[in-house]
């Protein structure tokens, strides 16, 4: 195997090792995002509950104001009884009295109902607030764990990048450029082995003449199907020989 091809294989392995960190990074980020999403969902529920509680309190206050107004009306009607002059006025006053009492009864029932609703919502809010505290604690814990993991990953990546930089400096720039062009579309399969006389990038069989050239040639050979750089692993060469 010629020196340039060997260097390309090593470079390809470094690039793969660097890119292999991406799934780890994505998994770590998803882990944090999941906990944060859960926390935000609970926080949104608390906001909704708080709004419902405010609305319930406002309705109770409105009914309490209505009760005060109706009580004032009843007091006023009691005073008007003394000024009643005939049966018609008495009947009208009686209807006002009964209507006011009916409204008072309904208002008191609504206040009792709303107070029960209010207590239930306050209880749910208290439980949800505890859930939020726990979710925030979990999110914070996971964030710290992931931050430490990310720091370790970045350190490992930095070492690999340093190795890659050293490798690319010593590599022939024309060959490096050729490799980078293939890597644009082939990603980490720019340099692949040939196994069982097939390219392990596109998995197409290499014809006999191309395979013989690959074994004997000291030049960099590409797959005539996909264009990836090919190499034969040492044990395969030994076996074929």
Describe this entry's structure for a reader.
There is one protein chain. The chain is mainly α and 241 residues long. The chain has two domains: 17-170, Helix Hairpins (Orthogonal Bundle), CATH 1.10.287; 173-240, no CATH class. Helices cover 79% and strands 5% of the residues. The chain has six helices and four strands; from the N terminus they run H-H-H-H-E-E-H-E-E-H. A four-stranded mixed β-sheet has the order 2-1-4-3. Strand 1 (191-195) and strand 2 (198-199) form a beta hairpin. Helix 1 (3-19) runs antiparallel to helix 3 (87-170) and helix 2 runs antiparallel to helix 3. Residues 236-241 have low confidence and may be disordered.
Task: Set out the fold topology.
Blueprint: H1 3-19, H2 21-80, H3 87-170, H4 173-186, E1 191-195, E2 198-199, H5 208-216, E3 221-222, E4 229-231, H6 234-240
Parallel strand pairs: 1-4
Antiparallel strand pairs: 1-2, 3-4
Helix pairs in contact: 1-3, 2-3
Which key phrases capture this entry?
Helix Hairpins, mainly alpha, 241 residues, 6 helices, four-stranded mixed β-sheet
Brief summary of the model shown:
By secondary structure, the chain is mainly alpha-helical. Helix content is 79%, strand content 5%.
